Amino acid sequence: MTSDDVLFRPVQPVRAYQRVAEQIEERILSGDLPPGSRLPAERDLVTRFGVGRSTVREALRVLQSAGLIRSRPGDPLGAEVLGVSPDNLSQALGRLTRSRVASLGELVQFRMVLEAESNRLAARLHTAEDLARMQDEIDRMAALGPAELHAFSEADARFHQAVAEASGNSLLALCARAVHEAVVAVIEKRIAGAADAAAWMARSIEHHRAVLCAVRSGEAEAACRLGREALFAYYADLVEPEARRLLEASVEP
Amino acid sequence: MTSDDVLFRPVQPVRAYQRVAEQIEERILSGDLPPGSRLPAERDLVTRFGVGRSTVREALRVLQSAGLIRSRPGDPLGAEVLGVSPDNLSQALGRLTRSRVASLGELVQFRMVLEAESNRLAARLHTAEDLARMQDEIDRMAALGPAELHAFSEADARFHQAVAEASGNSLLALCARAVHEAVVAVIEKRIAGAADAAAWMARSIEHHRAVLCAVRSGEAEAACRLGREALFAYYADLVEPEARRLLEASVEP
DNA sequence: GCCAGTCGACTGGTCAGACCAGGTGAATTC
DNA sequence: GAATTCACCTGGTCTGACCAGTCGACTGGC
């Protein structure tokens, strides 16, 4: 009796650089090499692992492209351990959209899902500090003039970030941020050409106040619905026409 | 008047391997190098880019670790272009959980969000082929004995994959798969030690039938709720006790 | 004594050349 | 015609070298 119908699995050769990268990654993920600590110099690693320098360097490149370490030429302390960051996540999402595997419509719909759920959970699990952070960002947005669109958009991002973190799920928050970034990267130029920035900003502030109100009073479903509707209102006209149907399926009650 | 308060931004030197990697990545993402096509040999790239071989190799390592290409020693055709894959996504998610940035509870809750939304959208947008695929996988699961847990779990994954693809949002499907894989990677050993595999499998099939039924008849909210409840039922006892509160906030109506 | 400049010993980034094991396909042999 | 051999090319690895940049200790002048 075998729980699998394959007795032997095909085994692919493991490259030397891969084993080096795995060992170092294991040390980082296990917390043995905390963020801020330093790796030994490359020429040190060469003797420790018993491999050539190119092998060590390829391993370090892999770790660096995963955002786990950062190296700077001339640094006598060696490469710096960065720990796990969400940059890799947003990078992967960005690739998916740039390669047309995922369209802008799908990206926006995905953001609707994440933000709506963030709102719902935030309404149930928020703390007083969370509410204060959200209020702060709204105040900051309200204080900005129509020419400061970039700063406005950053405050907007921080507001949504605060909501996502209030949800208590850091994974949700990280993904929401990555998707937000990906959407902004795609759509930034289109939104900049919009006609009446002032009206758009006023409406946006209005919406954020409504969300905060729903979150504060614990109306989970209302907060959830508000998030969906707002994204639909902002982006429905910017996505591909055939993607509108997708978005409509998401907002329809 | 500047929309940014910084006139000059700090500029970090761009490494040679980075520019090489960017050029190749650009070609892949733009569709210029479709999946299945081949990159020139390394020694070719050396002359084309005018850099050393180690530089080319480090660039290829970065692309390979991002899942964009795959190289095999001795292949006279050169590295193979794989296109964008979700492997990178699930790898990043796995790192987040392994490094305790995200707990298992958060991972499961995130999966609840994605699957519930997949169910909801699938109920609204499914096609006849989608329904057939789901039915197929349920039949396959029902035909398996209690000893074939691994095959059962794979069919289960394919069922959820079919639902996610029926949602019409490929990004949602990719992320759902990545999260599913990450959950399985963490929890596989715990679930294998569960007492009555047969009862567990029967209950699982029952649940999948209920989801399919709701999707087929277009009951979006019911399908959504079923997804949440099922995940709660399966995993609530396996996550950290303090994470139960998170999950309860997700299922509570 | 203190500060500024110099210098040397590192660092990572890059290159060139070499060797190896493995795969391919054409030439060779039966 | 089929099986075998073999030259050639692939990616993987190692070595040794050089460069530019960084840092710290040393040394000069004030």
What does this structure look like?
The structure is a homodimer of 253-residue chains. The first copy, chain A, is an all-alpha fold. Helices cover 67% and strands 2% of the residues of chain A. Chain A has two domains: 16-81, Arc Repressor Mutant, subunit A, CATH 1.10.10.10; 87-251, Four Helix Bundle (Hemerythrin (Met), subunit A) (Up-down Bundle). The first copy, chain A, contains eleven helices and two strands, in the order H-H-H-E-E-H-H-H-H-H-H-H-H. In chain A, strands 1-2 form a two-stranded antiparallel ribbon. In chain A, helix 5 packs antiparallel against helix 10. Residues 1-5 of chain A have low confidence and may be disordered. Chain A binds a DNA duplex (30 and 30 nucleotides) through helix 3.
Jot down its keywords.
DNA-binding; two-stranded antiparallel ribbon; Four Helix Bundle (Hemerythrin (Met), subunit A); elongated; Arc Repressor Mutant, subunit A; 253 residues; mainly alpha; 2% strand; homodimer
Mean pLDDT over all positions of chain A: 88
Tell me, briefly, the overall form of chain A.
elongated
Strand content of chain A: under 5%
Radius of gyration of chain A: 23 Å
CATH topology of the largest domain in chain A: Four Helix Bundle (Hemerythrin (Met), subunit A)
The N- to C-terminal Cα distance of chain A equals 50 Å
Structural class of chain A, by secondary structure, is mainly alpha
CATH architecture of the largest domain in chain A: Up-down Bundle
Work out the largest interface and the residue count of each chain: A-B, 60 and 57 residues
Low-pLDDT parts of chain A are 1-5
When the domains of chain A are counted, the total is: 2
Largest sheet of chain A: 2 strands, antiparallel
Percentage of residues in helical conformation of chain A: 55-70%
Give the ordered list of helices and strands of chain A: HHHEEHHHHHHHH
Number of strands of chain A: 2
CATH superfamily name of the largest domain in chain A?
A: GntR ligand-binding domain-like
The helix tally of chain A amounts to: 11
What is the name of the CATH class of the largest domain in chain A?
Mainly Alpha
The main sheet of chain A orders its strands as 1-2
This entry's quaternary arrangement is homodimer
